[in-house]
Design brief:
The protein is mostly helical. The protein has a single domain (2-140), classed as Substrate Binding Domain Of Dnak, Chain:A, Domain 2. The chain contains four helices and no strands. The protein has helices at 2-21, 34-64, 76-106, 113-140. Helix 2 (34-64) runs parallel beside helix 4 and helix 3 packs antiparallel against helix 4. It is elongated.
């Protein structure tokens, strides 16, 4: 069991951090039509959102097995921390989605409104990934990986 959890932890870490160092994304400014740009920025958002989900689950996984997979220690502070992170993430997702709607209002008459909204949503998502990685660093004393990603559309 210990070997499986260690293997899973290493696999998740390599996937998240390997991807974080060279996030595959498209430069959407080189797309042709507005439709092509829209498809491009949505694909970039989906990549960022997938990474966010992976990092979020990695933080929760770390909390679950902070004292080792065979530990029966379910101390109150760890449980409260995990609940706080879950509530924080749920609130942040609502914030992100509502805040990106503001961009739609700014560009309500332009054909680029949708693309601008997705670009903004992607930027917020990348910022949240860095926040979760920073939280992980402070909580567990691990190296902080700042994901640098130039958002273009």
């Amino acid at each position: 069991m210990k070997l499986f959890v260690l293997s899973l932890t290493l696999s998740i870490s390599i996937q998240v951090y390997g991807l974080a160092q060279a996030i595959p994304h498209e430069d959407c400014t080189k797309s042709g039509s507005q439709t092509d740009i829209n498809w491009c920025v949505v694909r970039n958002f989906k990549i960022a959102d997938h990474i966010l989900d992976s990092v979020y689950h990695l933080v929760l996984f770390d909390l679950s097995y902070e004292h080792g997979p065979d530990s029966m220690d379910t101390s109150l502070p760890d449980t409260l921390t995990k609940r706080s992170i879950i509530r924080s993430q749920q609130a942040w997702l609502k914030y992100r989605d509502e805040d990106s709607r503001v961009i739609l209002a700014f560009y309500s008459t332009g054909s680029a409104a949708n693309a601008e909204s997705w670009v903004y949503k992607t930027k917020l998502t990348m910022d949240r990934i860095n926040e979760l990685l920073l939280l992980r660093e402070y909580s567990y004393g691990r190296e902080y990986y700042n994901i640098g990603w130039s958002i273009s559309h």
